[in-house]
Amino acid sequence: MGDLAPLARLAPPAPLTAGQMSRKQKAAVIIRLLLINGLDVPLKELPEDLQAELTMLLGNMRHIDRDTLSGIVEEFIGELEELGLTFPRGVAGALSALDGKISAHTAARLRKEAGVRQTGDPWDRVRALDLKKLRPIAETESIEIAAVMLSKLDTGKAAELLSQLPGPRARRITYAISLTSGISPEALDRIGLSLASQLDAQPDSVFDKDPVERVGAILNFSTASTRDDVLEGLDETDSEFAEKVRKAIFTYTNIPARVAPRDIPKVVRQLDPMMLVTALAASTAGEEAATAEYILGNMSARLADSLREEVADRDKVKAKDAEEAMNAVVAEIRNLEAAGELLLLAGDDQEED
């Protein structure tokens, strides 16, 4: 039959038995079993040395028979059943377990005190921020760091952020983006960690809106005399802040510039008819009269004619009732905006048909 040695060398090695395998090899078997069954095993959370060791174990192990596999699985299940309760290791694990259960401020302080890095990809945290927080970074960091940050943002958000920067800086950052292709993964991670650390160090605001929005919202529903008096005072103390507040204010006379013609019927449908008639009847001169004509001109002719008749029959409206009615119109527009059913224009934008 000839020499069988070559055939013997081609024969598969004898399968490993459970008794021949270490605990780490058995753990590798369980992980391999979970992976081939489509389960997501968060191996990225393991320390890098353990990830490397696991990879080497999987690469060096031979095949096992069904009986051995069944024995390893039964042993694993038995150990799980004996396990009563586990606790996270260290502050990093505890913070992960308590994510969303303790305040973000407390978590950031504990992470900083313990020297624990933010879990996961730091760029995910940076990308999730709104433009109000990203803009100061783009304005104050080095051109190179700003270019890396914009490269990691979604295209739309990066474009919007770039449009908010001064022209010369925006051009320098744009050019610097072309020089980022050679950055190493390690350097990219360090930059992301540095930016995320800066953000963690920023105190969380106890308010949902910034000062401009808060003052603007208050003045929206103040009387015209109070609004003018406050803005005049702001002009004297901080003219830049006063100008920002003016842009944030939305009042009855801003309707023609801020509400698209197609949205007027939505507003009218939601309003108390008596409030609308009162507001229109009080709009007798200047910008208020122009606002009334804008509202009437962007609804059905039949409804507009009916409202004009009711307005003509109204007696002179008291100043207090006029303020209340006009504020009711503004409040309904704000409600529709908050519900996503209406988008306020920028003020000087012209709607395109």
Automatic annotation (TrEMBL):
Pfam families the UniProt entry points to: FliG_C (PF01706), FliG_M (PF14841), FliG_N (PF14842)
Location(s), subcellular: Bacterial flagellum basal body; Cell membrane
Main subcellular location: other
Keyword presence, Membrane: yes
Any GO MF annotation of the entry: cytoskeletal motor activity
InterPro entries per UniProt: Flg_Motor_Flig, Flg_Motor_Flig_C, FliG_a-hlx, FliG_M, FliG_N
Positions of the Flagellar motor switch protein FliG middle domain: 134-203
Record membrane topology: Peripheral membrane protein
Keywords: Bacterial flagellum, Cell membrane, Cell projection, Chemotaxis, Cilium, Flagellar rotation, Flagellum, Membrane
GO process annotations (BP): bacterial-type flagellum-dependent cell motility; chemotaxis
Domain Flagellar motor switch protein FliG C-terminal: from-to ranges: 233-343
Domain Flagellar motor switch protein FliG N-terminal: 20-123
SUPFAM superfamilies: FliG
PANTHER family listed in its UniProt record: FLAGELLAR MOTOR SWITCH PROTEIN FLIG (PTHR30534)
General function of this protein: FliG is one of three proteins (FliG, FliN, FliM) that forms the rotor-mounted switch complex (C ring), located at the base of the basal body. This complex interacts with the CheY and CheZ chemotaxis proteins, in addition to contacting components of the motor that determine the direction of flagellar rotation.
Protein's name according to its UniProt entry: Flagellar motor switch protein FliG
